[in-house]
Amino acid sequence: MTDRPINVLLPMAMPTQKALRDAVANIIRAIQLDRDLCDEAMADALGISVGTVRNARNKKTDLNAVTIARIGARFGLDHLNPYAALYGARNSPLETVDIDALPSLSGAVHRLAVAQSPSSTGGIALHHSELLEMLPDLRTASAAINALIARAERIAA
Q1: pLDDT tens-place string over residues 87-123
Q2: I want to staple 77 with a disulfide (CB 3.0 to 4.6 A). Which of 40, 91, 137, 140 is the partner?
Q3: Which residues of the chain have pLDDT under 50?
């Protein structure tokens, strides 16, 4: 029998409170590092107390849904990916700027083809260093795909 309850709607175990707190702490630390923010500045940006930021960063408390939504709105949805990963997801914006997707998509595919060449670092297997090197290209390609999906969804609506 599993230690954690299983969500019958999803093929994964339900996140624990510890996992949720870990994700929120990682989100806060990443934003503070990326933006060079202290607890006070982050609290001001989110409209919450310094103690709430500090306690969430130290995994002593949970953040409510409003505060998590404010983090996404203020700092970008990509910062909420550790939270979304707990239920097998990644965040992508519904509304995006229309961009020329072909250059970023072809660039990412090219980097992937080079990385899986028999003469590459990992040979035909994708080596972690190669994957990390192509991460910026993959993110750009992901944004391009998300823009195309959002555009198609606007047409379908």
Answers
A1: 888 887 766 666 778 888 898 888 889 888 898 888 8
A2: 91
A3: 1
Q: Residue 1 contacts by C-beta under 8 Å, 6 or more apart in sequence?
A: none
Of the candidates 92, 129, 96, 95, the residue with the CA atom closest to the CA atom of residue 114: 129
Question: What's the pLDDT at 37?
Answer: 96
Q: Residue 4's pLDDT is what?
A: 57
* Residue of 43, 46, 86, 92 whose CA lies nearest to 69: 46
CA distance 144 to 138: 10
Widest CA span of the chain, in angstroms?
54
User: How does DSSP classify residue 85?
Assistant: G
91 token code pair? 């965040």
Are 78 and 96 spatial neighbours (Cβ–Cβ below 8 Å)?
Answer: no
User: Is residue 23 within 8 Å of residue 86, measured between CB atoms?
Assistant: yes
pLDDT at 97: 67
User: Which residues have a Cβ under 8 Å from the Cβ of 40 and sit 6 or more positions away?
Assistant: 50
| Amino acid present at 123 | G
- CA–CA separation, 23 and 116 (whole Å): 32
Going by C-beta distance under 8 Å and a sequence separation of 6 or more, which residues neighbour residue 76? none
Structure-block tokens of residue 104: 């970023």
